[in-house]
């Protein structure tokens, strides 16, 4: 399997970092420091190299250091013995540029080069939050391994945007109903491709999630169920036809993959309503672990893991499952406020980095056995 | 601020052109001030004349200095075939291929609700008028491959087929001379979808 790691991270005006150059070794890296030291920002910057987007669902604008008008994230990556330099520049007002090994590239070319999985406290929203969180998860994960999906998604959003404006124009008497037809055709064709890929992704992810949960928590049977916004293309086309008036009145497209969702059940009961706090954490952890397994087994690459303050909330058994995954990773970054709270066998195998606000991480100790 | 007022005005005017940022605008303005006065005057005259003497062809909508344009009035060209494009500049690209001997029709845009452009705002009525006499056998839709171009093509396809004229769409495919491995996935996927038997 190709080994993947980040060797050096350079930041300019990214969040709390005006400037940063950090040489980071492969293996396990624990970053510790008080609150607001910039631990999450560091993980966010590394994650930015995966998709040129924030894992915290923030606009690029929000990532710029206060008072500046652009930022840069530069990563020197090691992928399967090959050195790859990724540079992403963002200029205020939405001008984002990517260069790979010094050559200008379209953003879509970034996908799959440096896959990373972020897991943090907010991920509980994957279970308890609204469907938008789960669609975001789907789109991010599928895009990382499938550029055509990413393109379909861009097209679909554009079609949806234009179609909704047309619906509003028709309502205001500035357009005719028959003008919807070409947009309907495109909506159905592009939307179908998205529905199919999401179904296929969840189909291959579901058994991995179930098995991961069983290994970790035992007891109840976890199931992941896709709830598509429309059953199939025929039903969708019917609904569009029958619901024309409703859509015009609403001024928006009422059916399609933009309404997709997926849910978890434990022994057949909706986990978001019936599971305990501890069970819910275990479900989300299982999903994240399964995601890593999915990459390893289906895409044949082990992504870099970014674990944001997650150990303290897990019981011993679940910590064990996470440790097992970490052992398989080529590189992982973990943050914590208190190193003492981490399992000793994890600390012993890690580089420990102390972080103070706005500064480079300072190495305090390396893994046992290393010099 | 730093420049005399006339120079400021020139920089501002150049900066409004597409693809020209403030730095380039400044460089161009300084260049214009440095060249002989006659050269600057020629540029001004060229701009003015192009504006005054260039009109839209009343038949195809292309830029021309006489109406109908050279393409529409050329008896050597195939008047039974019309290629529909979004903008006049698309004609140049197609003409460079030297493969197509038919006529053109410029829509002057594509369907785009966000820009307030519907079928009414495009030169579709003019296209229908050209199909009237029954001399046209084929209409080739050569709008862009983005969602707006695609919507325009789908709309025209439906409209024109009711008139009994043959409607075709430009194929999506691989750039010629391009290696398969360098084509991006999206282009490849579309080329796959549009594959055909070897004749």
UniProtKB/TrEMBL annotation, chain A:
Question: Which of UniProt's keywords are assigned here?
Answer: ATP-binding, Cytoplasm, DNA damage, DNA repair, DNA replication, DNA-binding, Nucleotide-binding, SOS response
Please verify whether the record's keywords include NAD.
no
| InterPro entries on file | DNA-binding_RecF, DNA-binding_RecF_CS, P-loop_NTPase, RecF/RecN/SMC_N, RecF_2
Query: Quick one: which residues bind ATP?
Result: 33-40
GO CC terms in record = cytoplasm
A Pfam family that this protein carries is SMC_N
Tell me the protein family, please. Answer: Belongs to the RecF family.
Q: Please give the name of this protein.
A: DNA replication and repair protein RecF
Q: Which organism is it from?
A: Neomoorella thermoacetica (Clostridium thermoaceticum)
- The gene designation is recF
From TrEMBL, chain B:
* GO terms of molecular function: DNA binding; zinc ion binding
Keyword check for DNA repair, yes or no. Answer: yes
Q: Which Pfam families match?
A: RecR_C, RecR_HhH, RecR_ZnF, Toprim_4
Domain Toprim, chain residue ranges per copy: 80-175
Listed under GO biological process in this entry are: DNA recombination; DNA repair
Q: Which UniProt keywords apply?
A: DNA damage, DNA recombination, DNA repair, Metal-binding, Zinc, Zinc-finger
CDD domains in the cross-refs: TOPRIM_recR
Matching entries from InterPro entries are given as:
DNA_Rcmb_RecR (IPR000093), Rcmb_RecR (IPR023627), Rcmb_RecR_Znf (IPR015967), TOPRIM_dom (IPR006171), TOPRIM_RecR (IPR034137)
UniProt name for this protein: Recombination protein RecR
Species name for this entry? Answer: Neomoorella thermoacetica
């Amino acid at each position: 399997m190709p080994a993947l790691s980040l060797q050096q991270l350079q930041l300019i005006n990214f969040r709390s970092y005006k400037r940063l150059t950090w040489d980071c070794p492969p293996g396990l890296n624990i970053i510790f420091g008080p609150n607001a030291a910039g631990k999450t920002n560091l993980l966010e910057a590394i994650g930015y190299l995966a998709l040129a987007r924030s894992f915290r669902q923030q606009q690029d604008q929000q990532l710029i250091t206060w008072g500046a008008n652009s930022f840069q994230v530069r990563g020197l990556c090691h992928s399967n013995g090959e050195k790859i330099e990724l540079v992403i520049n963002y200029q205020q007002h939405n001008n984002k540029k990517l260069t790979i090994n010094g050559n200008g590239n379209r953003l879509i070319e970034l996908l799959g080069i440096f896959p990373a999985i972020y897991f943090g406290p907010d991920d509980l929203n994957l279970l308890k939050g609204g469907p938008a969180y789960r669609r975001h998860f789907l789109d991010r994960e599928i895009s990382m391994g499938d550029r055509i999906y990413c393109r379909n998604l861009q097209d679909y959003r554009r079609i949806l945007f234009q179609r909704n404006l047309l619906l509003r124009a028709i309502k205001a008497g500035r357009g005719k109903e028959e003008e919807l037809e070409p947009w309907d055709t495109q909506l159905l064709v592009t939307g179908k491709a998205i529905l199919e890929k999401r179904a296929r992704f969840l189909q291959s992810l579901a058994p991995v999630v179930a098995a991961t949960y069983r290994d970790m928590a035992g007891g109840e049977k976890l199931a992941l169920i896709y709830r598509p916004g429309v059953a199939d293309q025929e039903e969708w086309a019917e609904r569009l036809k029958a619901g024309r008036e409703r859509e015009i009145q609403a001024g928006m497209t009422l059916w399609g993959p933009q309404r997709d969702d997926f849910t978890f059940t434990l022994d057949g009961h909706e986990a978001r309503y019936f599971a305990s706090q501890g069970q819910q954490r275990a479900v989300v952890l299982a999903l994240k672990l399964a995601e890593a397994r999915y990459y390893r087994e289906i895409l044949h690459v082990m992504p870099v893991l970014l674990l944001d303050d997650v150990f303290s909330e897990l019981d011993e058994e679940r910590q064990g499952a996470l440790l097992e995954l970490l052992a398989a990773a080529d590189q992982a970054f973990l943050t914590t406020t208190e190193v003492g709270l981490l399992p000793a066998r994890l600390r012993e195998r890690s580089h420990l980095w102390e972080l103070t606000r706005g500064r480079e991480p300072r190495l305090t100790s390396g893994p046992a056995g290393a010099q | 601020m730093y420049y005399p007022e006339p120079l400021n005005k020139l920089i501002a005017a150049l900066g409004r052109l597409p693809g020209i940022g403030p730095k380039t605008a400044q460089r161009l303005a300084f260049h214009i001030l440095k060249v002989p006065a006659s050269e600057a005057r020629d540029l001004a005259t060229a701009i003015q004349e192009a504006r005054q003497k260039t009109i839209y062809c009343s038949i195809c909508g292309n830029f021309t200095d006489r109406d109908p344009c050279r393409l529409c009035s050329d008896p050597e060209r195939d008047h039974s075939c019309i290629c529909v494009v979004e903008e006049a500049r698309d004609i140049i690209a197609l003409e460079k291929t030297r493969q197509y001997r038919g006529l053109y029709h410029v829509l002057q845009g594509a369907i785009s609700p966000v820009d307030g452009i519907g079928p009414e705002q495009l030169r579709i009525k003019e296209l229908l008028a050209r199909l009237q006499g029954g001399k046209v056998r084929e209409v080739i839709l050569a709008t862009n491959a983005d969602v707006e171009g695609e919507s325009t093509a789908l709309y025209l396809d439906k409209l024109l087929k009711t008139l009994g004229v043959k409607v075709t769409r430009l194929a999506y495919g691989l750039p010629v001379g391009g290696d398969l491995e360098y084509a991006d996935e999206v282009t490849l996927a579309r080329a796959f979808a549009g594959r055909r038997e070897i004749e």
